[in-house]
Design goal:
- There is one protein chain.
- By secondary structure, the protein is α/β, with parallel strands linked by helices.
- It folds into two domains: about 1-55; about 60-355, TIM Barrel (Alpha-Beta Barrel).
- It is about 35% helix and about 20% strand.
- It has twelve helices and 14 strands.
- It has helices spanning about 10-15, 20-35, 45-55, 130-140, 165-180, 200-205, 220-230, 230-235, 235-250, 270-285, 315-325, 350-355; strands spanning about 1-5, 55, 60-70, 75-80, 85-95, 100-105, 105-110, 125, 150-155, 190-195, 210-215, 255-260, 290-295, 330.
- The strands form three sheets. It has a ten-stranded mixed beta sheet with strand order 3-4-5-6-9-10-11-12-13-14, with helices on one face. Strands 1-2 form a two-stranded parallel ribbon. A two-stranded antiparallel ribbon has the order 7-8.
- Strand 9, helix 5 and strand 10 (about 190-195) form a beta-alpha-beta unit.
- Helix 1 (about 10-15) packs across helix 2, helix 4 crosses helix 5 (about 165-180) and helix 6 packs parallel to helix 9 (about 235-250).
- The chain is globular, with a radius of gyration of 21 Å.
- Mean pLDDT is about 90; it is low at about 350-370.
- The structure holds iron/sulfur cluster.
Length: about 375
């Protein structure tokens, strides 16, 4: 069966003979508006709907729970796939009231083993299907009050998994999210965050040039980066930045460089100067100035022994001052949802241990507007 929430109108006409593109657009629109295939869709023939119904289905992810943060309006969803894997999705409030971004997982677990990341502890389980990625957005939408204008404005591929290691499905899901008759999410409001797979970055530039790229830098110093991010052994940062440079030139978009500050590991003045030098080189070679995002470290298991410690306020300020003096403004990412292990680096299928301690979100059904 074709998972109907994961097709564009063009893919629907290709997959099911006898479905013209205009009707396919209306059907895709109705599916995303109603979260189901309605019995009647305006200006679509019954025979077309019957064909689609016979060939397609709308599989779902079971919602195991939704935890609201007590300290900010983040919500973490714990979802089960039909195969029983647990994936996590985070609803991120944006500055504009009623607008949200959805932090989606692209894999169950992750095989890249970054030392500061909770998902790494799960190991790689499997790539998520396109519908499983899109369905995470639908799950979040079901918890919004769409009558009051709440809506999903953006998607960030920064949940569990390395999106560029599941690129076929990630690109397909970007096209579905982008589709004007579908979720209609602007490409500029979609960000793909990677640990650094050069071939994937180049392909993303070719096949989804409207979406933004974010790189996890971890350290500008090769020996330190290799220790924090083992993927650096296969793809050293210099190669990743070559690909990011091409991405910047092809798309005209500045990359985001995420930098998780770890006390005594990568947060010295020397580290900051080395990072500033990398950014200067990136610009000199024709790239756009990277947007530096400083990510405070969030403990993976707050109750357990810690491998890393969050940088102190003073060390973080000194680090950012060096960047600023080098003409490189940085932005401190507000990494919300830490109390529900929903912040950056904390997604590790921990819902079971925490369910019951946090209030559940009321999952209101979407309004019917056709
Ligand atoms: S930071 Fe990303 S790439 Fe690294 S282990 Fe975690 S999920 Fe995987």
């Amino acid at each position: 069966m074709i998972p109907l929430q994961a097709v564009t109108p063009a893919a629907l006409t290709e997959a099911i003979p006898g479905v013209p593109i205009e009707e396919a657009r209306r059907i895709v629109g109705a599916i995303h508006r109603h979260d189901r295939l309605p019995a009647v869709v305006r200006n679509v023939r019954r025979i077309t709907l019957d064909r689609v119904r016979a060939a397609g289905a709308l599989p779902t992810l079971a919602v195991r729970g939704a935890q609201c943060s007590r300290i900010d309006p983040f919500v973490k969803y714990s979802l089960s796939t039909p195969g029983g894997e647990v994936v996590e999705t985070v609803r991120i409030p944006l500055e504009r009231h009623g607008r949200y971004s959805v932090c989606v997982s692209s894999q169950a677990g992750c095989g890249l083993g970054c030392a500061f990341c909770g998902t790494a502890r799960l190991g790689f389980q499997r790539n998520l299907e396109t519908w499983e990625i899109i369905e995470q957005v639908h799950v979040v939408r079901r918890g919004l009050n769409r009558v009051q204008g709440q809506r999903v404005h953006g998607i960030v591929f920064q949940g569990m998994g390395e999106p560029l290691a599941n690129l076929d499905n990630v690109i397909e899901s970007i096209h579905v999210a982008n589709e004007p008759s579908g979720l209609a999410i602007d490409g500029r409001a979609i960000t793909v965050c990677t640990a650094g797979l050069p071939a994937g970055i180049r392909r993303l530039a070719r096949e989804a040039p409207a979406v933004r790229l974010a790189l996890s830098i971890a350290s500008p110093i090769p020996s330190v980066r290799r220790r924090l991010m083992p993927i650096d052994l296969a793809f050293p940062l210099a190669e990743v930045l070559d690909a990011a440079l091409e991405h910047s030139m092809v798309t005209g978009l500045a990359p985001m460089w995420s930098f998780t500050l770890l006390d005594g590991v990568n947060d010295s003045v020397h580290d900051a100067r080395s990072l500033a030098q990398l950014a200067r080189d990136f610009r000199r070679r024709g790239g756009l100035r990277p947007r530096i995002s400083i990510v405070p470290f969030n403990p993976i298991d707050p109750a357990g022994p810690q491998s890393f410690v969050r940088s102190s306020h003073d060390r973080e300020a000194a680090f950012r001052r060096v960047l600023s003096e080098a003409g490189l403004p940085s932005h401190k990412r507000y990494s919300g949802g830490a109390d529900i292990l929903g912040a950056c680096g904390q997604l590790a299928g921990s819902h079971a241990q925490h369910t019951g301690q946090m209030p559940f979100v009321a999952l209101t059904p979407p309004p019917v507007d056709d």
